[in-house]
Specification:
By secondary structure, the chain is mostly helical. It has a domain of 46 residues. It has 4 helices and no strands. Helix 3 packs across helix 4. The termini are far apart.
């Protein structure tokens, strides 16, 4: 009988470790992560201070807001310049598409 008790203790410990690990993984999957916590914040609450971007703020808006802060945005001036060039290029493409979509003038 004592041999069965000696075997039961390590098996029970192993089962407890496995079941505990499965429970922890299940809780991690169901609990909201950092993005879930940010989105669950009340709309009237202010964004936390620091380098975190505000709720519903694009990366471009974040870079434009913090481009002069060292350590927050690497090469902020270059990124802002790239965003300006992208915006100008998008406008040029939009104009070219509108011109291509309009019918040519008939003689």
């Amino acid at each position: 009988m004592s041999a069965s008790w000696a075997l039961l203790i390590p098996v029970a410990a192993l089962a407890l470790i496995v079941l505990g690990g499965m429970a922890v993984l299940r809780l991690q999957k169901t609990s909201p992560g950092p993005d879930g916590l940010r989105s669950s914040r009340a709309p009237g609450c202010a964004a936390p201070a620091g380098s975190q971007d505000a709720v519903r703020e694009s990366r471009e808006e974040f870079v434009r807001r913090h481009w002069q802060r060292p350590g927050v945005v690497a090469n902020g001036a270059t990124l802002v310049d790239l965003y300006d060039r992208i915006r100008a290029l998008e406008e040029r493409v939009g104009r070219a598409e509108r011109q291509a979509a309009s019918p040519p003038p008939h003689d």
